[in-house]
Design the sequence.
């Protein structure tokens, strides 16, 4: 069966803040110049925003540039930050740390948002401008012209059984061809991974470094609710050599809502560490638990995030396509913010694309346009200036002082020199290579969840709304089926059963009674990508399941 093909001027992969901002900016420019530009956007979630998860405390700078009248348009930024708190936790106490003006953690002028709702609103604005949005369509394959340039993407075939045989509901995927394809898949996109290799885009940058962010939404006792309050901590329950920290945001919603979460750097060394259980343990701290007592947990989710900074950004353009947002990794790590930089990168990409599309004297060496001006313009923008200034903060945590060394570095070099120091620090290497063998590490004893403040994993995953069609080819693939037991279990005590925040991986006894095998519960997958990043053998390859599968977040 042939695949049906559609022709567009620009195809955008991923309806997050970056992809939607790119699509919106293209249609704005087309309207301003009375040009026809067909923009198609595909999104693997069944609804726009259903796979979006972030803290999120948003700097509105890029939104103000995209829609100066965003307030009149009803953008869901309802909670301006009114109070900013930062502290270092010990097991029993909290040491307050002053947030000095000019430090990255200052949130004056920012808004606490439910990013999924903002993304959904951006989707409405995009559709009103004429962007063709296809939710529930997962971009599974990059298509290429004979000259090697990107031709577009194809969505995956649907209606296939686990064994690869077609069902009665079988349908071929859709091909979308474009002059330029914009990849906005978010952190560790599976198509971007292929593009890095094909075009050698990571040749002149350091390996990307990541964190895993886990998040819950709670309704709490109204007397404890302080809309606009932002709290961050570092320290307990992590040791100083494990990068990470927490957030607790009070949202101004019709009900007393707080968003809380925990981030663990995926360059951690102890294979016994379990990010989910660290998060659950943190909630019992004397400075946190009182806020949650008497409350109800209503949502849970997790997502990997980029922490490499400017050192880890790959080449962003190639013939026929470009990378925007969290896909290449534009997160400002010490600010813990990437929405504003992602949106701005999408806008800059569209301005460069529009200029090329409407250039009557256009001469291109390849059929797919190579819009190199985008990367040049990004490097002249406030995005690059901001990321360059904080480039050394995350890698400064790799000294003997660990996270506290990073705080000292920030206080001295960032606060005084504003990132103008004449050196750039390096990361130690890829995150998966940082794990130590289990025999060299101490097992971590975690307390049992109490079912009121802390919870078990499976009841948590149930709150994510995650669902996949059971009878479909696996989307969590192994390059070699023997590696999990022969190396991961034997050397690292099976870290995938701990680093996965959704209970996808578990080692179960063989039917013969001797030894174990790795069982993959793919239907639990929340699409966080941690397994693809942290697997010490790099044996797990995450690919997209059928469109519409995965979590069903509501304003996460």
Sequence:
């Amino acid at each position: 069966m042939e695949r049906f093909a559609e022709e567009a001027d620009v195809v955008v992969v991923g309806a997050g803040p970056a992809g939607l901002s790119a699509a919106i900016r293209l249609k704005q420019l087309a309207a301003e110049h009375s040009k026809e530009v067909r923009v198609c956007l595909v999104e693997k979630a069944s609804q726009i925003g259903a796979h979006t998860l972030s803290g999120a405390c948003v700097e509105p700078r890029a939104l103000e540039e995209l829609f100066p009248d965003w307030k009149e348009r009803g953008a869901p930024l309802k909670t301006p930050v009114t109070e900013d708190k930062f502290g270092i936790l010990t097991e029993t106490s909290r040491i307050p740390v002053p947030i000095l003006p000019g430090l990255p953690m200052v949130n004056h002028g920012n808004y606490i948002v439910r990013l999924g709702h903002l993304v959904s609103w951006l989707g409405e604005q995009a559709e009103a401008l004429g962007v063709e949005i296809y939710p529930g369509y997962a971009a599974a394959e990059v298509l290429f012209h004979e000259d090697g340039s990107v031709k577009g993407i194809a969505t995956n075939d649907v209606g296939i059984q686990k064994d690869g045989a077609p069902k009665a509901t079988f349908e071929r995927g859709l091909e979308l061809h474009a002059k330029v394809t914009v990849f906005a898949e978010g952190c560790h996109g599976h198509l971007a991974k292929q593009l890095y290799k094909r075009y050698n885009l990571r040749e002149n940058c350091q390996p990307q470094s990541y964190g895993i962010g886990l998040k819950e939404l709670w309704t709490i006792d109204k007397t404890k609710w302080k809309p606009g309050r932002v709290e961050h901590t570092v320290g307990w329950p992590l040791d100083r050599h494990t990068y990470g920290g927490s957030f607790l945001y009070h949202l101004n919603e019709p009900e007393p809502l707080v968003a809380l979460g925990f981030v663990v750097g995926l360059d951690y060394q102890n294979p016994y560490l379990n990010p989910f259980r660290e998060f659950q343990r943190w909630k019992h701290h004397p400075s946190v638990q009182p806020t949650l007592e008497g409350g109800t947990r209503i949502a849970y989710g997790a997502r990997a995030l980029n922490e490499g900074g400017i050192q880890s950004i790959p080449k962003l353009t190639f013939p026929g396509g470009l990378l925007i947002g969290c896909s290449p990794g534009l997160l400002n790590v010490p600010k813990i913010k990437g929405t504003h930089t992602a949106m701005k990168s999408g806008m800059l990409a569209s301005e460069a694309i529009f200029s090329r599309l409407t250039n009557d004297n256009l001469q291109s060496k390849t059929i797919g346009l190579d819009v190199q001006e985008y990367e040049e313009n990004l490097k002249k923008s406030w995005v690059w200036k901001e990321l360059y200034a904080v480039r050394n903060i995350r890698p400064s945590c790799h000294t003997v002082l660990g996270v506290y060394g990073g705080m000292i570095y920030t206080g001295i070099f960032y606060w005084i020199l504003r990132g103008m120091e004449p050196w750039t620090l390096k990361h130690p290497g890829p995150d998966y290579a940082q794990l130590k063998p289990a025999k060299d590490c101490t097992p971590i004893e975690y307390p049992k969840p109490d079912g009121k403040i802390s919870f078990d994993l499976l009841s948590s995953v149930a709150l994510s709304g995650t669902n996949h069609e059971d009878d479909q080819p696996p989307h969590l693939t192994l390059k070699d089926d023997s590696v999990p037991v022969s190396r991961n279990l034997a050397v690292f005590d099976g870290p995938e059963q701990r680093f996965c925040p959704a209970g996808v991986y578990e080692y179960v006894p063989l039917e013969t009674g001797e030894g174990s095998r790795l069982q993959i519960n793919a239907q639990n997958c929340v699409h966080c990508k941690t397994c693809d990043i942290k697997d010490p053998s790099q044996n797990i390859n995450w690919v997209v399941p059928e469109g519409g599968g995965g979590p069903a977040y509501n304003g996460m």
